[in-house]
Write a structure and sequence with these properties.
heterodimer, A: alpha+beta, twelve-stranded mixed sheet, 12 helices, 46 strands, flat, B: mainly alpha, 33 helices, 0% strand
């Protein structure tokens, strides 16, 4: 009886408290939960959880799947689900693993299915909530690799004769050989079954992706995504064994091209190596094989050929954005030979094959280096500075001080008239203390902006054909109280909270959610009060955002595309290491190189505003960081209003600026019309005529070492843009800012017939310049290259200590005309 | 302590025993010879990517059976929900397009027209403005397009979209449609946004333009800002459009060697591809003497078509050209221009280092041998090569003897049965199948076959692959020549584990021929066991089941009819085809009996 009473009491209570509509009427079920093989389960990595949801009902079902940490981490991932009646779907939800998980060995994620009303879905009475555990992978190689390799050649049916020449999967073996030679593990993520990723989050897991499966590049969406990965510093190795140029062409920039003109079968060949490092005898570069090795005959533009055979490129490297695309035209079997000695006892660190010695350098650059860095990866001060600080306005201060002075004068006059001027000795200090105290009180009570703000800094980098742009955004949100806030974005990308110290868990939970392809949200039901930061990375598509540059008699004139707002405080970055200040005269951008960029001089202005000071700091960061070594050239940087952004609630006031990087196309001047080619348009590099390279000058960044100790005897080339060739030079201005105490500095211009001395200076300490007009020198630059030899003597014999020398700049400015 | 030591000792002995067993088993596995297991997934691949040549077995294409059974593998059809493509979420739609792209090579999408229409509908929707999403749709639509009209409708949709229109343009290049020609012409007059766009325009004019486009192409070719790929493409396009009048341009190109970074000769050769004037011959002649091998081959190819006399003068140079493609071109030209005098070149080319080249030489010789007047010459050339010590050439000669049925060289083939390397001994055995053999030769073949059979069954070690294949071809030869003395030997090949599948298949096929109509019940039962073998551990090979069913159909024992009928396989699977053929033999036999009784 007692039991019955208990039951009769609890049953209605349970029925009342349970949400009947969700518990009984729900038809959706979580039916599968696995980890995708593409996950990288380590601190700072990402896990992809494959979730299956099934709608057993006869009505459409809408809901959401969320992934939550079992331990306290202020982030979760979500994905919206829309199901038709009786439909089953399988999808992946990404979850980033925090950097501070380094000591954790395993963790759990809770996967929950919510219905449209936000209740936990139930199926057959069971709440649809499961847990999935992950073991941290301690064996992961530091450099990660993805492979998209064609299916292995099938075995011949056993009654077939003759046998195939080789059943090895050479593309795979070559990748592994390169990987092992570069000191990395064989471990790689196979992308063959799923196809190349489309979401950038997944691409960012890889330092290198090797592609040889032609089917995977048939999908243009995958190619666009791969290109975005390249532009963001990724590296792709394309083996042309089974691919054709049409698949690769869309990955290249506007001024790059690759075309196949045939195929040659080789049995023995000699490889020419021009990687700038290797130096092998012909015998070491000769390969003989019994079977046949095919090589695609390619012609290319815009790339660097590191290996060639019989004049045809065997390996070409294309710089795309901050990343690199390496194309090997020689069949994979041509790069590898059987390894004579095992590389390691660990099978994951060993390979049956090894790259030929002449290919080891290439293997190192492909498989032995991490992804190139991109700008704005570290937090910058701009968005927080732009939020503003509580200060008393200048006018108020002016008014208060002015009034105080007037009152003081009036009181002084009255006291003087009354013959009590001595009392002023008491009145003045007391009144000064009172006014100062009032002003301090005013400062504390005054807040210039009580509203809640989102402050943004955007770096908008347009693709070389001006058809798309990658936006890297850092934003700071200042809230007066806790709010429910969501930031919404579209296109390929994402937004995430930017927490400098992950161990400090902010209040609330940041949920990264995806509703459909290309629609994402970052939300927090309790977005913390105060200042918090987020970062976004996404791509937009646009129309023809290309700057046209025209050479004039005094410099270069820059014309912005139609509809583009004027750029402020612009910098022309045409060649690496040679930024030029751009002035704005009557709505026209112009750069002559008269005033040179300096450490504190990135903006042409006599009186710098606060905003300009912030911009100056940004330029210093941007052009001083590691990413500037791979930063695309022929660019115009400039500031404008914010463009298409990740949408924040309208209640938040929006401030900020956008630093735009636009591709510059130099127009060919009309033949015979004289122009000046400023130094910023002429690239300085070390000559390839001499073996090796001097450490004094870095070709990659276009910069000189800060403090040089050893002497130098090196040939350099000033390379002019192809648009001005053939060039009829009228004069050449050479500027060399060198400080070399107790050393002798000499410069010669190398012409076809002789070395013309132009400078010989002992202990130079001031910038030097000269204008060259000798006919043989002017004639020598017809094909666009001015060759010079620079000699700086070594440590003086009588010097007791090493005396450093340094170079500020070495520039050439040319006046001339294009020959017809 | 004693107890522990004893336990350790036992453990050590047990471990050693296990190791010995594993080692022995491994060695046995190794000694059993090559892995004969077939890869079922390879079937479709070999249908679409056949090997350069292969030596077929007699049982594979039995003229009496006349059943094409081989390589039936084909992936299952892909069925897509067009409603999902049309109305589903972008995620779902993307998954669909990726499936289409992955399966497109198979061309196995059901209701393809409906799927294509759904993709086009989706392209017209507003959300398809997202460039990435649109690109996926366009990629799938292009791959599904069956006709130029499909591409034209796609062009109308994409003409104004920079990223996707280039995809359609590429597809249009290879189609018969010239719908984009005005866009390409327009682009030649303005600065293109990218080299990719310019390349498409230049190639498009070459494929679909007319001679009026030559000036624009010429301007593009000589433009100081043009890069090498564009210049080569422009030269190719000019060569496609013009049959005369480009001689001066080609000369001009040759003069710009520096600017064309080593490819001036190739561009000039491209331009003159369709020219037949004396001036063009002179320019092409100059290119032959250049150092650019690709240009030499292109120029020589043009000369063979339009100036055969000049090509003839340079023939010897190209027969020893470093590029195998040039050597093949020269061989073809030599055969076409003077078959009789080409015999010597072809004979020399049989030993070429390049497999494709020596195969081509052999194919040419086989074709020449069909001409009665040249057959003797071919035989002499083959005999001469057999005397030389060039294994590559000898292998080709063996195959040539079989292909051209050069029975006069049968003795030479029998000699080669013991030759090295293995490629020669297999090819020689294969050649014997096609030859008319005298009694002495047949006896030699039989002796060799008996020797190999003895070796096969004398030890548990299987024959190496080459010997097993040779044995298979020798059995074929003896069966074709109806040498029924070997009939008792063939029974040994029926059991599963005693011989490699190829000689077993040949033997069972031979048993069927020797015992045709005999209604041998014991033999029929043994064959039925092979046909129905369902041992999951060591499954019977498909080809053995196939030849067993064929043999049962020939022997015609009454019990076999039911055995054939109950087998689960049906056409088009190989065993199904064989059982169907077997049942047809029973049916035609009963028809014959009925006729007789009437």
């Amino acid at each position: 009886m007692k039991q019955y009473l208990c039951r009769s009491f609890w049953l209605p209570l349970i029925l009342l408290t349970c949400p009947i509509d969700s518990a009984l009427a729900d038809s959706a079920e979580l039916y599968g939960l696995t980890q995708s093989t593409r996950s990288r389960v380590c601190a700072g990595g990402m896990t992809l959880v494959r979730v299956g949801v099934s709608n057993h009902g006869e009505e459409p079902w809408t809901g959401k799947v969320t992934l939550k940490w079992k331990r306290r981490v202020g982030r979760e991932s979500a994905r919206e689900v829309k199901l038709r009646p009786r439909q089953r779907v399988l999808f992946e939800v990404p979850m980033e693993i925090p950097q501070n998980f380094k000591r954790i060995k395993r963790f759990d994620l809770e996967v929950t299915l919510f219905d449209e009303g936000g209740n936990i879905a139930a199926y057959e009475g069971a709440p649809q909530q499961r847990r999935i555990g992950f073991m941290m992978d301690s064996q992961l190689p530091p450099l990660s690799m993805g492979t998209a390799i064609e299916a292995p050649p099938p075995k011949y049916p056993f009654w077939y004769w003759p046998l195939p020449p080789s059943t090895e999967q050479n593309t795979f073996e070559a990748i592994m050989a390169a990987r092992i030679d570069a000191g990395n593990s064989r471990r790689a993520v196979g992308l063959e079954h799923e196809g190349l990723p489309i979401e950038q989050q997944e691409w960012q897991l890889f330092d290198l992706v090797a592609v040889s499966d032609p089917n995977l590049l048939l999908d243009h969406a995958s190619r666009l995504s791969a290109k975005q990965y390249l532009e963001r510093g990724g590296r792709i190795w394309v083996q042309m064994d089974k691919l054709n140029c049409d698949s690769i062409q869309p990955l290249l920039t506007a001024d790059q091209c690759l075309m196949q003109v045939g195929v040659i079968q080789l049995h023995d060949f000699v490889v020419e190596v021009s990687d700038g490092v290797s130096d092998f005898a012909e015998r070491e570069r000769t390969v003989h094989v019994d079977s046949v090795i095919e090589m695609k005959r390619l012609v290319q533009a815009g790339g660097t050929v590191t290996h060639s055979i019989d004049g045809w490129p065997a390996a070409v490297t294309f710089n795309i954005g901050y990343g690199q695309l390496v194309v090997t035209a020689l069949d994979s079997s041509g790069w590898i030979s059987v390894r004579s000695r095992s590389a390691s006892r660990d099978p994951l660190m060993d390979s049956k094959y090894t790259m030929y010695p002449w290919a080891k350098q290439l293997a190192g650059t492909i498989a032995g280096v991490a992804r190139n860095p991109t700008p704005l990866t570290d937090q910058v001060n701009y968005p927080v500075q732009r939020l503003g600080t509580a200060v008393v306005p200048r006018l108020w201060v002016l008014f208060a001080l002015g009034s105080y002075c007037l009152v003081l004068i009036a009181v002084g006059f009255v006291q003087y008239s009354g013959g009590r001027l001595a009392s002023m000795g008491v009145i003045v200090p007391i009144s000064a203390v009172i006014v100062a105290a009032m002003m301090l009180m005013g400062r504390n009570s005054i807040n210039p902006d009580q509203s809640e703000i989102v402050s943004r800094l955007q770096l908008v980098e347009y693709a070389s054909d001006g058809s798309s742009a990658q936006i890297t955004e850092q934003a700071a949100l200042k809230l007066n109280s806790v709010h429910d806030i969501r930031l919404q974005g579209t296109g390929l990308g994402n937004t995430e909270p930017d927490i400098a110290d992950e161990s400090e868990s902010p209040p609330g939970v940041f949920q990264q959610s995806q509703s459909d392809f290309g629609n994402w949200t970052l939300g927090n039901y309790a977005w913390p009060a105060g200042v918090s930061r987020v970062r976004s990375d996404y791509r937009i598509y646009c129309k023809n955002q290309i700057v046209s540059a025209e050479l004039t008699s005094s410099g270069v004139e820059l014309n912005l595309p139609d509809g583009q707002a004027k750029l402020q405080d612009a910098i022309l970055w045409f060649t690496r290491g040679n930024p030029m200040l751009v002035s704005s005269v009557a709505e026209q951008l112009f750069s002559s190189g008269e005033i040179k960029v300096g450490k504190q001089r990135w903006i042409l202005s006599n009186l710098m505003t606060e905003e300009q000071n912030r911009r100056l700091e940004m330029y210093q960061i941007l052009f001083g960081d590691e990413s500037s070594k791979t930063r695309p050239t022929r660019r115009l940087y400039g500031w404008s209003e914010l463009i298409e952004t990740v949408r924040a609630p309208k209640s938040l006031k929006q401030v900020g600026a956008s630093l735009q990087s636009m591709p510059v196309v130099l127009q060919r001047p009309e033949a015979g019309v004289e122009f000046e080619l400023p130094y910023g348009l002429i690239e300085l590099r070390q000559s390839g005529n001499q073996p090796g390279a001097s450490t004094a000058y870095d070709d990659r960044s276009g910069t000189w070492q800060d403090e040089l100790t050893q002497g130098m005897d090196r040939e350099f080339e000033f390379v002019m843009p192809a648009e001005v060739l053939p060039l009829e030079a009228k004069s050449i201005l050479l500027e060399f800012d060198v400080r070399a105490p107790q050393r002798k500095v000499e410069i010669w211009v190398l012409t076809q017939y002789s070395e013309v001395p132009i400078l010989s200076a002992d202990s130079p300490s001031l910038p030097w310049e000269t204008t060259l007009t000798q006919p043989e020198i002017l004639e020598s630059v017809r094909d666009g290259v001015l060759e010079v030899r620079v000699h700086v003597s070594g440590k003086p014999k009588n010097a007791s200590r090493v005396i450093n020398w340094y170079v500020g700049h070495f520039h050439a400015t040319i006046r001339g005309a294009v020959q017809p | 302590m004693k107890c522990d030591s004893f336990l350790y000792l036992k453990l050590i002995i047990a471990s050693l025993g296990t190791l010995c067993f594993v080692g022995w088993a491994g060695a046995q596995e190794g000694l059993r010879g090559p892995n004969w297991k077939s890869d079922p997934n390879s079937a479709y691949f070999f249908q679409t990517h056949p090997p350069l040549f292969r030596l077929e077995h007699a049982w594979e294409h039995d003229p009496e059976v006349n059943v094409d059974w081989t390589l039936r593998g084909r992936p299952a059809n892909l069925s897509l929900d067009s409603d999902t493509l049309r109305n589903g979420s972008k995620h779902e739609c993307l998954l669909g397009t990726r499936q289409i792209i992955r399966n497109i090579e198979m061309r196995n999408i059901t209701q393809a027209e409906e799927v294509e229409a759904a993709i086009l509908d989706r392209l017209r929707s507003t959300e398809a403005r997202d460039v990435t999403f649109r690109s996926a749709l366009v990629s799938a639509a292009i791959l599904m397009a069956d006709s130029p009209e499909d591409l034209e409708s796609l062009w109308l949709l994409e003409e104004s979209n920079y990223e996707t229109r280039m995809l359609v343009e590429k597809a249009l290049l290879d189609s018969r449609s010239s719908v984009a020609i005005s866009a390409w012409r327009g682009r030649m007059n303005q600065r293109p946004r990218s080299l990719r766009e310019q390349l498409l325009a230049v190639q498009g004019l070459g494929a679909h333009g007319d001679p009026s486009d030559l000036p624009a192409l010429k301007t593009c070719f000589f433009s100081p800002t043009s890069v090498l790929p564009i210049q080569l493409a422009a030269a190719q396009s000019m060569g496609q459009l013009a049959t005369k009048g480009l001689e001066a341009t080609a000369r001009e190109a040759l003069a710009e060697k520096e600017k064309l970074t080593g490819q001036a000769d190739l561009t000039a050769a491209y331009m003159l591809k369709k020219h037949n004037s004396v001036e063009s011959a002179e320019v092409l002649g100059r290119i032959l003497n250049s150092s650019n091998r690709a240009a030499q081959v292109t120029a020589f190819e043009t000369l063979t078509r339009h100036h055969p006399k000049i090509a003839q003068q340079n023939l010897k140079q190209f027969l020893v050209h470093p590029d195998p493609a040039a050597r093949r071109l020269a061989l073809r030209f030599a055969v076409e221009s003077d078959a009789n005098s080409s015999l010597g070149f072809l004979q020399e080319a049989l030993g070429d280092i390049n497999l494709k080249t020596r195969s081509q030489a052999r194919t040419h010789l086989a074709a020449l041998a069909t001409d009665g007047s040249l057959k003797q010459g071919v035989a002499e050339a083959a005999a001469k090569t057999l005397q030389e010590n060039d294994p590559l050439a000898i292998e080709q000669v063996c195959i040539l003897v079989g292909e051209a049925k050069l029975s006069s060289l049968a003795a030479g083939m029998i000699e080669m049965l013991d030759a090295k390397p293995e490629a020669t001994l297999v090819a020689a055995a294969w050649a014997l199948q096609s030859l008319e053999l005298d009694a002495e030769s047949l006896q030699a073949v039989e002796d060799r076959m008996r020797r190999l059979t003895r070796r096969n069954f004398a030890s548990k070690n299987r024959l190496p692959r080459s010997d097993a294949l040779q044995l298979s071809y020798l059995i074929d030869t003896l069966v074709i020549n109806r040498v029924d003395r070997i009939r008792p030997l063939l029974d040994q090949f029926i059991p599963k584990e005693d011989a490699a599948p190829p000689p077993r298949a040949a033997a069972i096929w031979g048993l069927g021929i020797f015992e045709a109509g005999s209604q041998d019940g014991k033999l029929a039962q043994k064959l039925a066991e092979r046909l129905h073998d369902a041992d999951p551990d060591i499954p019977e090979e498909t080809i053995i089941k196939y030849v067993s069913a064929i043999a049962m159909g020939r022997i015609l024992h009454p019990s076999s009819e039911e055995q054939l009928d109950v087998h689960l396989d049906r056409p088009p699977f190989p065993i199904g085809l064989a059982t169907q053929w077997g049942l047809q033999q029973f049916a035609s036999q009963s028809d014959g009996n009925t006729e007789e009784s009437r």
